[in-house]
Write a structure and sequence with these properties.
The chain has 290 residues and is mostly helical. The chain has one domain (2-168, 176-277): Rhodopsin 7-helix transmembrane proteins (Rhopdopsin 7-helix transmembrane proteins, Up-down Bundle), CATH 1.20.1070.10. Helices cover 77% and strands 3% of the residues. It is built from 10 helices and 4 strands. Strands 3-2-1-4 form a 4-stranded antiparallel β-sheet. The longest helix has 34 residues, at 94-127. Residues 41-266 form the G-protein coupled receptors family 1 profile domain.
């Protein structure tokens, strides 16, 4: 939550949790720990997916994009958040705020679209397994990734200038502004995709086949649930004072906690990634010993 005094190019005052100063030092360490986990976990995912030939398939190509996105997303706001939590200075310049707004909206919108792309990839893998390689060829995967990043950028270039043109005089407060279309439409597509996946899985006669098909989707379903569960709670619920206080903690969760949990979800529940981690560790060990 921000407020600004004097003219429209004054420094913004970041209120945040200033009404509860006893929380700020605790939140500093909590956020710092999650930020370190985010950096380490997502770098490991990117490294393993790029180094292991067995992971050079569409699912892990999109996972690398998600990991890179999470790294950039948290880095666009967490360092400033840590500074505000630790010290008495809680301001950000107009230019700094504008840059952060552009980047934050760009990456947030990109994640919405990228999760749709990953859902479509899982739909093709389960519902059209024999044609999967032909459909999800490298050129299409690259085009879909560019579409996700490009759509987020266009959304930010449209929404950010409109936001910055609002009158920020006196002591007006702004809690959040978001494009509802980029929340609801992707979620509907994702739910539709998994509805089709569920029908396809139920048609599989063997329990082992159903389990295998479902296991290819469960990690993505958990990531979608974490992201959309908190984002929709922040932006789609009716606004009141209680909701505004709750929104601050939910915003912390999807900007700080969720990006750190995504690598754990994809490694702990994924035998291929765990196998790739073991192979990378062995190669590193052997190269050091030799």
């Amino acid at each position: 939550m921000i407020t600004i005094c004097n003219d429209s190019h004054s420094d913004f005052i970041l209120l945040g949790f200033s009404e509860k100063p006893y929380l700020e030092k605790i939140l500093f360490w909590v956020v710092l720990i999650f930020y370190c986990l985010t950096i380490a976990g997502n770098l490991v995912i990117i490294l393993v997916s790029s180094k292991d030939p067995k992971l050079h398939i569409p699912m892990y190509f999109f996972l690398c994009n998600l990991s890179l996105l999470d790294l950039c997303f948290t880095s666009s706001c967490v360092p400033q958040m840590l500074v505000n939590f630790w010290g008495p200075k809680k301001t950000i310049s107009y230019i700094g705020c504008a840059i952060q707004l552009y980047v934050f909206l760009w990456l947030g919108a990109t994640e919405c679209v990228l999760l749709v792309v990953m859902a479509v990839d899982r739909y093709v893998a389960v519902c059209h397994p024999l044609q999967y390689t032909a459909i999800m060829h490298p050129k299409l995967c690259l085009e879909l990734a560019i579409l996700a990043w490009g759509t987020g950028l266009v959304q930010s270039l449209v929404q950010s200038p409109a936001t910055l043109q609002l009158p920020f005089c006196s002591h007006r407060k702004v809690d959040d502004i978001v494009c509802i279309i980029l929340l609801v439409v992707p979620l509907v597509i994702i739910l539709s995709s998994y509805g089709a996946v569920a029908k396809a899985v139920l048609k599989i006669k063997s329990a082992a086949g159903q389990k295998k098909a479902f296991s290819t989707c469960i990690s993505h379903i958990l990531v979608v649930s974490l992201f959309y569960g908190t984002v929709t709670a922040v932006y789609l619920q009716p606004k009141n004072r209680y909701a505004q206080e709750q929104d601050k903690f939910l915003t912390l969760f999807y900007t700080v906690a969720t990006p750190s949990l995504n690598p754990l979800i994809y490694t702990l529940r994924n035998k291929e990634v765990k196998g790739a981690l073991i192979r990378l560790g062995r190669r590193t060990w052997d190269s050091q010993n030799n």
